[in-house]
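Practice problem: DUF4412 domain-containing protein
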Amino acid sequence: MNKGRLFISTLILFCSVFSISAFAQFEGQISMNLYSEENGVTEVSELNLYATSDRIMIKGEEDFDLMSQMSTDGLLIRNDRKDFVIMTGNNQALQVTKEEIEGLVDMMAGWSENGNGSDDKPKRKTTYSFSDRTQNIIGFDAAELIVEDAENPNKHLSIWLTNDIDVNWGMLGERWNKLPADIDAEVNGMAQEIIFKGKNFPLKIEAVENGKRVTLMDVSNVNRSSIAKGMVEVPSGVTLMSFKDFVFQMMMQQ
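Answer key — structure tokens:
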């Protein structure tokens, strides 16, 4: 085979592999229902995840908590720009890097310890294991992950995971530093290995107590389309605020 034909064959092979990878990478909208109970009445709110090859927007009907003293109605993860945009309301958004978020979490943890005293209680031991149960959820095959707390043997979480939805988590799949010990075990442990690196997406989360199951979250719709491309941009009219300005505002409120 001459060099010209070898080059063309290699190029065709490369394009074929790239096309398969691009098809496997999820792009579109995933709609989720979140369930909570208030005075015996079940309330339902919707959370939407919009994903492209290099960005993710997580947007809810109502504000949701990201961490202590911070809530948002939209979180934009821009892997192409290596930053996060946190919608804070009043046409403002906080633009931060991963390193700045780590510093912010560390600072908030310090404030919490100063206000409540150091926490010398032993950390809870949480275990994770897959059961042999499977089920089909809105057309996707899912396996059951059991999350157990040693202090509550009659209770556990049941997380139904599918590997048929491959979201590019980007920076979320990297190790996070300066996290409190209890959060570190969750974020850099189970979430990293099973969801982000394991390429599993949760379709349903149930709280199980004495055999009774209560749904906390379930995916209601998965739409593979280009709809997400228009949703992973900073909305028109929103002003970006620097991390330094945000920290200054927080300190003034203390």
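Discussion: Residues 10 and 169 are 30 Å apart (CA to CA). Students who identified this feature from the tokens alone can consider the problem solved.
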